[in-house]
Structures are given as C-alpha cells and as structure tokens.
Write a structure and sequence with these properties.
Blueprint (H helix, E strand, L loop, with lengths): L1 H6 L3 H18 L6 H11 L2 H23 L5 H24 L2 H25 L8 H18 L3 H10 L4 H27 L4 H8 L2 H17 L2 H19 L3
Helix pairs in contact: 2-3, 2-4, 2-11, 3-4, 3-12, 4-9, 4-10, 4-11, 5-7, 5-9, 6-8, 6-12, 7-8, 8-12
C-alpha cells in the first residue's frame, strides 16, 4: 500500500508534501502551534495513517536541527516531569490507533484543545503567576499528548499548553520542546516500522527529497522567532493552537 502511494504520487501531492516539510521547519524553529498544518497537508496528500509514517522521520530531522540551535535553553526538569507520561500515552496510542474511529478522535481532540486554550486564555487574563504543581496535571496532559502524537503526530498542541501553563520563557520553551520531541519521535520510529508498517525504505527515500523544505523552514523560522516579543509569543501560540484544533475537524 505504501509503495503504491509513493510510486504514483501526483504533482499536487508533491506540492502539499513540500509545503508540509516547510511548515515542519518553521515549527521546529519555534513557530509553535502550526504543526497541525503539516499534518493536515500530509493527510491530504496521502492516506491519514500512511502519512504519519512519512512525517515522523521528517520530524526527527527537524528536531535534530532544533536541538543543535536551541540546546543551551533546554530546561530538563520539565522534560523529566512530562516525558514518562507521554511515553505511557504513546503505548496506549499504539493500541488505540489500530481500531479508533477517526471522526470520533478528531472531534474529541479538537474539543479538548479548544477547552484547554480557553482555560489558558482565562489564566493569562487573571495575570496570575502561579503554575499547576500537582502531578495529575502533567500526567493528564502528558498522557493525552502521547496518545495524540502516536496516532496523528499532534502531541505538540498539548505540550504547548503544558509549557505555557508552566510559564516557560520563549527560548526555553523552544529548547525544551526540541529535546522532548527528539526523544519522543525517535522512540516512535520502531513502532511505525515494526508495528504499523508505515515507514519503509520507499518512504524514507521520499523523505530525503523533502529535506530542503525543512531546512528552508528552519532558516525562516529562526529569523521570525528572533523578532517576536515574549508576551506576543504566548498569545501567538494560543491562537495558532486554537486554529489548529479547528483545522483538525477539516483534516
């Protein structure tokens, strides 16, 4: 199935895939919240489940560059607190993803994201400096992030909300997320290869042709992030995450 999809790719699918690679670069460079765009574009170019296997190696490539550039800003205490719950969610996602009704998944996730964004907006309006400290917060958000990153590469929306809730500054936000998702996406590779069979030699060769799009996105993203002010960055992520939730419904 994967081989036939790659072998018979149309010009439209090529354009969609290259644009998705560009968006991945922008996202990994720090323009958080737009990752849903690449997921949507890839799902339009290929079947939904097959597209996840094409995207994961591209995400790893982008993560490596993000880690190299933002490594000095990483805050490992947030990764240590959040990562185990994401791993637990990924394990659940492997089994759920085989039989889950896609429409139900999309509607449920969009509602959760929008409610979460609304809560974060209310939180910011209160100007409260307090952050959630109970383990249940990291546990719940991390588990959902793990499930959604395995099923549709959409865990970024929930990790964004977690880091925003922790009031992580802009550069630390990007550096911490870079390491978190490099670890997560590397761990997802064998699951896509051996369990779901969505990563093959053909998909990897196809991914190689999309690398220039990621590099272009990273270069543009780094320049954009440098001129974005801290307060605007938080608002931008909330808005883009909310728009992403709406786009999920039309994926």
């Amino acid at each position: 199935m994967i081989l036939s999809i790659i072998a018979n790719i149309s010009m439209t699918a090529w354009v969609l895939a290259f644009t998705a690679a560009l968006v991945i670069g922008l996202s990994k460079a720090g323009i958080k919240g737009i990752a849903i765009v690449n997921v949507t574009l890839m799902a339009l170019a290929f079947n939904a489940k097959e597209s996840t296997g094409i995207v994961v190696p591209l995400l790893v490539f982008g993560d490596i560059f993000a880690v190299i550039y933002y490594n000095r800003h990483a805050q490992w205490r947030y990764i240590i607190r959040f990562l185990p719950w994401m791993l637990f969610g990924i394990i659940l996602g492997v089994f759920i993803g085989n039989d889950l009704n896609e429409k139900t998944f999309k509607i449920g996730m969009a509602i959760i994201i929008l409610v979460s964004v609304g809560m974060m907006y209310w939180w910011d309006r209160r100007k409260s400096k307090s952050v959630p400290t109970h383990w249940l917060f990291a546990g719940a958000v991390g588990t959902v992030a793990g499930i959604t990153t395995m099923i549709g590469n959409l865990g970024g929306a929930f990790s964004n909300l977690y880091f925003l809730a922790m009031r992580v500054p802009k550069n630390e936000f990007i550096g911490t997320a870079a390491w978190l998702f490099l670890i997560i996406n590397i761990l997802k590779l064998p699951l896509h290869i051996f369990v779901w069979g969505t990563i093959t030699v053909d998909t990897l060769l196809f991914d190689l042709k999309l690398i220039p799009g990621i590099l272009l996105g990273i270069i543009l993203g780094i320049r954009i992030v440098k001129v974005i002010k801290e307060d605007f960055y938080r608002k931008m992520i909330l808005v883009l995450t909310a728009l992403g939730a709406v786009m999920i419904l039309f994926k």
